[in-house]
Amino acid sequence: MKNILTAIISLGGLGLIFGILLSLAFKKFAVQTNPLEAKILECLPGSNCGACGFAGCQGFAEALTNMKAEPNSCVDGGQAVAEKISAVLGIDVKQIEDTAAFVACRAGNKQAAKKYIYKGIDNCQAAALLFSGDKACIYGCLGLGSCIGSCPFDAISLTSEGLAVIDSARCKACKKCIKSCPRQLIKMVPRNQEVLIACNNKDRGKKAKEVCSIACIACKICEKACPSQAITMVENNAVIDFSKCNQCGICIEKCPQKTIQKTK
Question: What is the CATH number assigned to the segment(s) 193-264?
Answer without folding.
Answer: 3.30.70.20
